[in-house]
Amino acid sequence: MSEQNLLNLPRVVQDNILSKLSIKEQLNFRLVCKGAKSWIDGNGHRLAKNIPATIMNDLKNVTFTKFVQQKEQPIHLMTKIYLENETSDLFEDNLKTKFLQLHSNPITTLRLKRYFLNGRNESQQIFLEGFSNLRHFEVEEILIASSGNTDERTKVPRNFRNLETLKLGRVIIYQETTGHIFTEDIDISPDDHDICLKYVWNLIDSCVQLMYLCVPGVTRRPIDSCYEETRILSYINVRAEAEAPLSFNSNTFIMTVDLHRFSGCIRHLPHILLCGGMLMIKFLNVNSIVFNSGFPNIMEGPRNDYIHSLVSTLIVDPPIYFVQKITITASLMPLEYIVGRQHNAPSLFPNLLEIDIILDIGFDPEVNGASYSQDPNGTDEVICIPHVDQLLRFFFPRNRVYANCHSLSIIFLDPIHRYQRRATPANLTCLPNIISCLRELRNLSISGWNGTNVETYLMLWQGFPKLQKLTIDRCPTLNPKCFIGGNGNSRNISNFQFFQELEFLELIGLEAMPDMDTESRMWSNIQERFDLEPFNLLTKNGCSPRTAVWIRRHVPDEPIVVKEFTRVTRSAVRAGTGNATTGNKRVKLN
Amino acid sequence: MALVRVISSDGAAFLVSQRLAKRSGKLKTEIETFRKSSDNSEAQPEIRIVTIRAEILRLVLQWLQQHQNDPVLPANQNEQDGRGDAEMGQSQWDRDFLAPMDLGIVMELILAANHLEVKGLLDITCKLVESKITGRTVDEIRTAFKLKSDFKGNEEEQTRLENRWCVEN
C-alpha cells in the first residue's frame, strides 16, 4: 500500500482520524508535507480554515495582553479577526508585539470597528504593519481628526500595497484633543471635508493591487461625498492603465468594485459602468435605478457581463444574461422604488444564482399595505408600503423556476430602528410562490423575521428539501417548536426532517431570540435527534455567546414522528426578561 | 446454519455464517437484497467484494469473528463521556491483532472496514493511525508513513510560523 493512501483516505475516515488528534498534533502534522498540510486544512470544520472571524472585544490597553495570557488549549488557527475597538487605546497595549509574533502570520483578514486615518495613529500603524500576510481589510467606521493635523502624521501601512480586498465604512469627523465626534453636518467645515476627501483617497490609492473595493452607501450627508463617483472613476482609470499590459485582450476582470447602494448621485454612474466594463472592471450591487436615467443601452450589446449583480426593484427590459445576483428591495427609502411590468421575470435573469429579498419595516398584504409606528407604544406615525406582495409575486410567479438559483436571503430590516423588527407580518402570503420557484435552493438565510406564525417556518422547512445551509439571524419568535413541529404532512413527521441534506445550521444573535435557549434540555434533545453537532470554533475560548453553529454529520435513520410528548426542564433565567421557571413540566409539542 | 460465500477481489472465497456477515453493514444489505430477489429461500448468497483482496478480507472476518458477540455500534455514534469509540471497544485481543501489522496493511484494513461498514474495526484502526501521529516529531511521522517533505523555499518555515501561536502558547 503506498503512502498516498493516508492522505487520500475517504472523507469519513479522515474525519475519524482527525477527530482523535489534538489541535497541536494537527498543526504538527501540517509540517510533514504539502499533502499533509492540505489534508489538515481541508477538513475545515475541524481545523477551521473557513470559520467565521475570531471576535476580540475592546479591553482598552490590555486587549492583547488578556488574549496572549489565556491559558486554555487553543481551539483553532486564527485566519480572520474582528477587533471591536471603540478607540485607538488598544494599540497602546504593551503585549501587542507578542500577540503579533504569535498570531499574525496566518491572519489574512482583519476587520476593525474603527480605523483612525490620521492624527496620532502611529501605534495603530505599527500594529497593522505587523500582519505580513494581510490580504483583506475591512473597517466599519473611518475616523478622521478635524483640521489642524499635518500630513506627516498620516501614513498608510506599507503592507496595504498587498491588499486584495478593501471594504470601507462611513466617515466620521472627530476632535482629536477632546474625542468629540461631530454628529451634525453643520459642524463640519469645508476644510474638514477636504481633509476627508484627501485622506480617504490617499488610503484607497495606496492599495494598488486591489481585486475588490467596496465603499458604503451614499446618503445625503455631505461628508459621504468623499466617496464621490468621479474619484472612483479616476481610480478605475489608474488601475486599468496599470493593468492594461496584463489584461489586454483578456477576458479576465482585473478587479471588482462593489457599488453597494451607490445610488445617491447617479450623474456619473452610467459612465462609470460603461468605462469600467471596457476596462475589465466587474461591478457588484449596481442599483438598477441607473437604467431609468437616460442610459437604456447600458445593458444591451455583446458586452454586458461586467454587471454581476443588481440592487433595487426596478425592472429592466432586456434579458440580462450575466447577472448572477439580484437584490429585491421593498423600502421606505426614497431613493428606491418599485416598478412592476408584465414580464416573465425568470427569463430576464436566466443565470441567476442568488436572490436577496430585503423588506424594510413590515408590510402586510392582507390589509392592503403595512402599518408601521415609529413610536413602540403608540400609533403617532403610520406609513404604508403598498405593492410589496405584488412585487414578490412578479419575481416569483407560479410555475416558474429559477433552475440555477441556489441561495436565498430574506431580510426584514427596519431602517429607523435597525434591531427592532416588531412590524413584520404574521406570515408571508407569497411564500408558496417563492418556494415553488426555488426548487434547487441550497442556502437559506432569514433575518429579522418577527412573525408569530410557526407555520411559516414549517413551510420553509418543507419547501426546500435540498437545503444544505440554514442561517437564522435575530428572529425573535423562533423557538424549538419550529424545529420539532409538523404541519400535517402526509408522512406525519417533523417538517425539519425534510432537510435530508442539511449540513450546517447557524443561529446568529441569540440574545435577540429569547425562546432559543441552546443550553436547555429541549434543545439538547433536538440536537440529538437531528444529529446536530455543536461547532465551537468561533473564538479561542469557545463558542461566541451571540452565535451558535451546528454541523450535521449524519441524517437520522428513523423519521421523527410528531405529535408526541417531550419532557422539558427549564431552570435558567431567561435573558432579558428576568422570568424563571423551574422544575419539570410536560409540554405538547404540536 | 445459514451461510454466505464472500469472495475477495483476487478470487478467494470465504464461507461464513450469515449471522457473522450481517455484523458488516455492507454485507447485511447485500444478503437482504439477495433474499428479496431470490425465489429460493434456501439459496446460499454469494457476495463478491471487488475492492478488497483476500489477505485483508480474512483479517476483517477474523476481527468480526472475535467480536461477534459485541453489541453493534450505531454508525453515527459520537464520542461519549470523554471516551472515544476506540477506547470503549478496544481490547487486549485488538491490540495483539493490530500489533504485527505494518502501516500499509492498516491502511488497507481502514479502507476495507469503511467499505464493509464495520464501525468497530474502523475505529480501532483509525486510533492506531492517530497513535502513530500523536507525540511524534515531524521526522518520525515522515518515517512512519513513508512521506517526504515536498515544501519549497521557505514554505515549511512559513507553516512553522503559522503554528507558532499554538506551539509557544
In a nutshell, what does this entry contain?
Chain B: Belongs to the SKP1 family. The complex is a heterodimer of chains A (590) and B (169). Chain A has 590 residues and is an alpha/beta fold.
Write the layout of secondary structure elements.
The complex is a heterodimer of chains A (590) and B (169).
Chain A (H helix, E strand, L loop, with lengths): L3 H4 L3 H8 L4 H7 L4 H9 L1 H4 L6 E4 L5 H6 L11 E5 L11 H8 L5 E8 L5 H8 L6 E10 L19 E3 L2 E5 L15 H17 L5 E3 L14 H19 L7 E4 L10 H10 L2 E4 L1 E2 L21 E3 L1 E2 L10 E6 L7 E2 L5 H4 L5 E7 L27 H8 L11 E7 L17 H7 L5 E5 L6 H10 L5 E5 L7 H4 L19 E5 L12 H10 L1 E3 L12 E6 L12 E5 L14 E5 L2
Parallel strand pairs in A: 1-2, 2-3, 3-4, 4-5, 4-6, 5-7, 7-8, 8-9, 10-11, 11-13, 12-14, 13-15, 15-16, 16-17, 17-18, 18-19
Antiparallel strand pairs in A: 19-21, 20-21, 22-23
Helix pairs in contact in A: 10-11, 14-15
Chain B lengths: L2 E5 L5 E5 H4 L3 H13 L8 E3 L5 H13 L18 H5 L2 H7 L4 H14 L2 H15 L4 H8 L9 H13 L2
Helix pairs in contact in B: 3-6, 6-7
